[in-house]
Amino acid sequence: MAKMRVGIYPGTFDPITNGHTDIILRATRLVDKLVIGVARNAGKGPIFSTEERVAIVREEIAALANGAHERIEVRAFDNLLMHFAMSVGAAVIIRGLRAVSDFEYEFQMAGMNARLNPKIETVFLMASDRYQFISSRFVKEIGQLGGDVSHFVSPRVTEHLLHKFGDARKVAEAFERKIAILDKTAAKKK
Ligand code: ADP
Asked: Has this prediction a pTM greater than 0.85?
């Protein structure tokens, strides 16, 4: 029997967007099994915890209509990407490439990873036209300012964003109320 080809699609997925899901679907046509690696990536200051991001990606995968979900696994990782890729027996690392913006970073990362382990290839899938401009970063910015993100993420992710920013707003409002009370008390004392 031919050896099963395992691919790994690593990312921060903070949160997963329609652009990511498109890459996932296309990647499943290239590999027998796809491991989605959710990077802890504390340096990027994600708004969703690793556990939340993994759970949200799993929800998206469960909702895929084409049966591909049976060949997809979602896992968190916080070690070196190449070590994680080796530990899951991956033959390829899949990355998505949007016009211009991603090139330099991805080029460097692929080059470094090739040095670390030349047997594991990085494969780039060009972002589809309609998802070219979608980034998790802008989705978060738009969501935070109360804009409509439903063109960029699934209805499930939209809900998660609403909750996240709703909670953050409540905390900020409570904080402002507290400051106002403290100001009033201080003014009375004068
Ligand atoms: P990272 O922190 O590793 O860049 P991201 O979650 O931002 O994690 O992205 C994971 C991968 O998905 C990267 O290869 C990125 O270029 C790609 N990607 C992000 N958004 C899109 C999109 N709209 N279309 C195609 N690929 C994308």
From this structure: yes
Domain residue extents for the chain = 6-189
> What does the pLDDT look like over 75-114, one tens digit per residue?
999 999 999 999 999 999 999 999 888 999 999 999 999 9
> What is residue 95's three-state secondary structure?
strand
Residues with CB under 6 A from ligand 1: 10-13, 17, 19-20, 23, 41, 44, 95-96, 98, 102, 127, 131, 134-136
In the annotation, is 20 catalytic?
A: yes
Looking at residue 166, its amino acid is: G
CATH superfamily of 6-189: HUPs (3.40.50.620)
Is position 98 annotated as part of the catalytic site?
A: yes
Paired strand residues for 11: 38
- The alpha carbon of 129 and the centre of ligand 1 are apart by a number of angstroms equal to 14
Give the side-chain half-sphere CA count within 13 A for 23. 26
